[in-house]
Amino acid sequence: MAKLKPRTLSGFMELLPEKQAQFEKMAELLRKAYSLYGFTPLDTPIIEASEVLLAKAGGETEKQIYRFTKGDSDLSLRFDLTVPLAKYVALHYGELTFPFRRFQIGKVYRGERAQRGRFREFYQADIDVIGDGKLDIANEAEIPAIIYQTFTSLGLERFQIRVNNRKILNGFYAMLGLTEKSGDIMRTVDKLDKIGADKVKELLTDEEMGLTDEQAQEILDFIAIKGSQGEVLAALEGYRGRSEVFDAGLDELTTVVKYLSAFGVPEDKFAVDLTIARGLDYYTGTVYETAMVDHPEIGSICSGGRYDNLAEYYTDKQLPGVGISIGLTRLFYILEEQGYLNEALNTAPADVLVLPMTDDLAPAIAFATALRWEGVRTQLYTEQKKFKQKMSYADKLNVPFVAILGEDEIAKGAVSVKDMAAGEQATLPADEAVKRVLSGLDRGREEKPIREPGK
Amino acid sequence: MAKLKPRTLSGFMELLPEKQAQFEKMAELLRKAYSLYGFTPLDTPIIEASEVLLAKAGGETEKQIYRFTKGDSDLSLRFDLTVPLAKYVALHYGELTFPFRRFQIGKVYRGERAQRGRFREFYQADIDVIGDGKLDIANEAEIPAIIYQTFTSLGLERFQIRVNNRKILNGFYAMLGLTEKSGDIMRTVDKLDKIGADKVKELLTDEEMGLTDEQAQEILDFIAIKGSQGEVLAALEGYRGRSEVFDAGLDELTTVVKYLSAFGVPEDKFAVDLTIARGLDYYTGTVYETAMVDHPEIGSICSGGRYDNLAEYYTDKQLPGVGISIGLTRLFYILEEQGYLNEALNTAPADVLVLPMTDDLAPAIAFATALRWEGVRTQLYTEQKKFKQKMSYADKLNVPFVAILGEDEIAKGAVSVKDMAAGEQATLPADEAVKRVLSGLDRGREEKPIREPGK
């Protein structure tokens, strides 16, 4: 029969078993971290009616959509988890309890140009809190705690949560009489890291933008405000009283900073960063980014913010919310590429490989059954191979323990347990063998999927 | 602004939070059960190149495929998890260790006619063991144990695993000289439950099928073999020596039955059922179905079997395997409809709702933080509402505990903890309050997502 060459589409991540186990561990810890903050899991279809999904889309996003017809239906694959959430909340409004807190970890699709590290199918891991009409600022203050606990539980250490407030930015540009130009200005200011302050000033004062030297300098001075949380807040107090919007934003930012320590967020994991804007239309209050301190070139690995109208395309209800998103597939790709995946994590498919050495498999099967009902992940290896090949199989899978049941062991109701890492082997009564394995596994349980390189 | 009516496509399951929590619990327990047997998690793209995905497809399946073009690419959504597995194993053959044991829980797509209980997007939960060239019969013997432990861990009690062997069927029809007609015969015999033995005999002996009365009676006698495992095997021994294929199949079935008790499968959960065939081309050895004893009309809720060539469309390597699949979305739908979902399962998004009663939220936040670092799922409720409305929110979410921090509590470093089920409230020092919650939660942890109706 002629064979068809198997292949996986470019831009689609497909991992080998060890790496997949790492990825699954990360997803499991994300589910756990999000659950700790009272978010309920949600799952929505990957396919939606195009008119529903594209109610808001346009421009670059719309071009990337996987859109097709099936029968009479115009269908699209979701390109994020926010639009499906908006649809869900508008559709099920009467059946939900607000504030509605949900997390969703799922695949989304964007037909981007294929290139290294860009994915067309990728996981997003989102949380959102949706209020009905109102939503208290405390919800915005809680987000840094969630980001902190999430990345800490994954094992990442050198990261920083950076926060700004859109009202502060909008209020500041209003003070300068530059509200209408604020979008263009923020886009220019966003280039600061890349092109430097002089070049930014040049762009701000060129014919097209038309700012005065004084205005440009005020902007540069403003975004240069840096320091400890207290220093930044004190500097911002200097602008108070000139714009109601600014003052409201400063109050919100002050509240967010105030509760950080009660939320358990260490001071070095958090910074106020006045250069963060996160797009122009959607966010209306606190905005968040998360940087890997040793890899600024990667950009934010967890971002989001406060918005006033989740579902305005579907409903008249005012549904304000705050949310963050992790691009999990991209993050995993970066972590692997930069050497952050913890090789000490147990990624073997089983904790014990049971090797029967007799024709009658019953004693080996009974021992495997006992391990499984104790919650130990156990594989029976029953292929007709030489002992050496069986041990080589255990080595390749990186299984922590091998349990051998030969004639001698079976005659005394015993099992020979080999600790593969320590290289130690002991012949024990079956019930003690189970205990030996259980206590051995406890050692490895605290390993996290991420480990800082060089640690 | 004109509003667009939000809707979810028909044939796509979208659950409300409580039901979603039930579904997630089932998926979590499936991952756990599969992991106990040494299966590694796998994830493959939902989109594949059409030529790859449809290498084997044809007929009814092909018509149901979601197929479309994006740019120059002819793409399709996967319609099962087996073809992607075949592609994966053929593509990564050199990087895998065999036997390769993987589980995958993922969405698949079939554009079926929409009707109640039929889904176009649904989860399959599959396991497969793939050998390189050979695969020992013990792998087939292990499958009933996996099915048994899986459904038991979910809470299902009245189910039966039914097993047959394709070699027994093929050998039997070869004895009668009916190999060429065996496909048509099996399709007819499959109707036994619906149309009765007389009608089956009539169809077998009609002009089109052309069997003699004697042949038809032999077939009916054969499939009528019933009884305990020992009785069925004894009856089958009566046919031994007439067909090598039959004898090989009987040896395999005998091995499967022999190890059941060592695998911990109770006798009443297992039956040999000679009417099971599971399609005609793919399976070559043991085949499995799982019935809900009280709902025969539902058909099999977990099926599969042994096959000889997983990936013959992609590779010359002989890759025999054995696998089973649960149609999780359909199963969940049935369980809900038939009243099998356990309402005692804790489906609340949080275990504790913390209610701050003062303007300064810091003490309440600190208490919530302490709970979270102890692994307790905790929600802070900070909206400006009356106490009654806050308690009503806790009721609606079905949160097990409410923790109240008012002026009085804060002054003494205490928390008032209300056990919502018991209706009891106690004011305790903060650290004791954490312990009270932890011990209270232990009570509910053993609940399973499924409970037999009437129990």
- Oligomer category: homodimer
| CATH fold-level assignment of the largest domain in chain A | BirA Bifunctional Protein, domain 2
- In total, the number of domains of chain A comes to 2
Spatial gap, N to C terminus of chain A: 52 Å
Largest interface: A-B, 105 and 105 residues
State the helical fraction of chain A.
25-40%
Report on the biggest sheet of chain A: 8 strands, mixed
* Sequence of strands across the biggest β-sheet of chain A: 1-5-6-11-10-9-7-8
Radius of gyration of chain A: 28 Å
Structural class of chain A: alpha+beta
Low-confidence stretches of chain A: none
User: In one word, what is the shape of chain A?
Assistant: elongated
Strand percentage of chain A lies at 15-25%
What is the number of helices of chain A? 17
Just give the CATH class of the largest domain in chain A.
Alpha Beta
- Number of DSSP strands of chain A? 16
Could you please describe the fold and organization of this structure?
The structure is a homodimer of 455-residue chains. With 455 residues, chain A is α+β, with helices and mostly antiparallel strands. Chain A has helices at 17-36, 50-53, 59-64, 82-91, 138-154, 166-175, 182-189, 192-195, 197-204, 213-223, 229-237, 244-258, 328-337, 362-373, 387-397, 407-411, 430-444, and strands at residues 40-41, 47-49, 67-70, 73-77, 100-109, 121-130, 159-165, 270-272, 283-292, 303-307, 321-327, 352-356, 378-380, 401-405, 414-419, 424-429. Chain A has two domains: 17-337, 2-Layer Sandwich (BirA Bifunctional Protein, domain 2); 352-444, 3-Layer(aba) Sandwich (Rossmann fold). Chain A is built from 17 helices and 16 strands. In chain A, the strands form three sheets. An eight-stranded mixed β-sheet of chain A has the order 1-5-6-11-10-9-7-8. In chain A, strands 13-12-14-15-16 form a five-stranded mixed β-sheet, sandwiched between helices. In chain A, strands 2-4-3 form a three-stranded antiparallel β-sheet. Chain A is elongated. At the A-B interface, helix 1, strand 1, strand 2, strand 3 and helix 4 of A face helix 1, strand 1, strand 2, strand 3 and helix 4 of B.
